Amino acid sequence: MHLIFINPKLNMANKETKSHPAKDLKKTCLFYKFSLHIYLYQIQYKYICKGSKVRFMDYIKRIEKIINEQNGTLLSSDLDEYEIPRTYLSMMVAEGKIERIDRGIYVLPDALEDEIYIFQRKYPNIIYSHETALYLHNLSDRTPFEYSATVPSGYKVVYAVKERFKIYYIKKDLHLMGITKETTPFGNTIRIYNIERTICDILRSRNRIDIQIFSDALKRVVKIKSLDHNLLLQYARKLNVENILNTYMEVLI
């Protein structure tokens, strides 16, 4: 019979060096996180130092020019067109030159957020229509408490848009029909439907439009001398509201 003696110190050592997967994973994550920070600082240092301070100031001035041209609003994607590293946005925020109001959205410290412009920049499939288009075309005096927009059928509307928008759907082949450009109250350009398309839209969706807004818009539109009646009729046929249009026009004209 053989006796086996165990050294208590050796046993304690083995216990101390026993691997703990959870702790090892945590250490690994911390290591990679630290490495990532170092890497980002190296990139930042590279862009600042490469080409000297002149290049750094050129980037800053170009960003300031973009944000001023867009009336105090800037999206991080705006920098991609000019191949400006987005790290400069963080620098400008730190210096107090701009403010970050949402993911990828920045404004000048003294500027108001042009929400209607920002939403369309972030979600290009949104075309302002119905009540919002009426207001922007001066066919309604009532400021919409929510934005109205049309998107193509099958388009997945994100929560951020659902929360602030009244969404209308249309067939894909009719989505881009009648688009024109209009200026927001802040001076930025957005895409909306022209007057002729807008009138057909409210006729088509009349059950979802406030009766007072609906009536006022039709009374005002018949007084517009520049209204293209042929185009209006063309849109009415495509949107299947020709008979309804003729009925209202006979009463109003």
List keywords for this structure.
single chain; 253 residues; alpha+beta; 2 domains; 3-stranded antiparallel β-sheet; 3-stranded mixed β-sheet; 12 helices; 51% helix; disordered N terminus
The level of helicity is: 40-55%
SSE pattern, N- to C-terminal:
HHHEHEEHEHEHEHEEHHHH
Helix-strand category: alpha+beta
Helical run tally: 12
What is the total tally of β strands?
8
Distance between the termini: 117 Å
Largest sheet, in brief, is: 3 strands, antiparallel
Question: What count of domains describes the coordinates?
Answer: 2
- What is the radius of gyration? 30 Å
Strand content: 5-15%
Q: Strand order across the biggest sheet?
A: 1-3-2
Low-confidence stretches: 1-17
Can you offer a commentary on this structure?
This protein has helices at residues 8-16, 21-49, 52-69, 87-94, 115-122, 130-136, 159-162, 172-175, 195-204, 211-221, 229-238, 242-252; strands at 73-75, 99-102, 105-107, 127-128, 147-152, 165-170, 179-183, 189-193. The chain has 253 residues and is of the alpha+beta class. The protein has two domains: 39-107; 115-252, no CATH class. Strand 2 (99-102) and strand 3 form a beta hairpin. The radius of gyration is 30 Å and the shape is elongated. It starts with 7 loop residues before the first helix and ends with a helix. Residues 1-17 have low confidence and may be disordered.
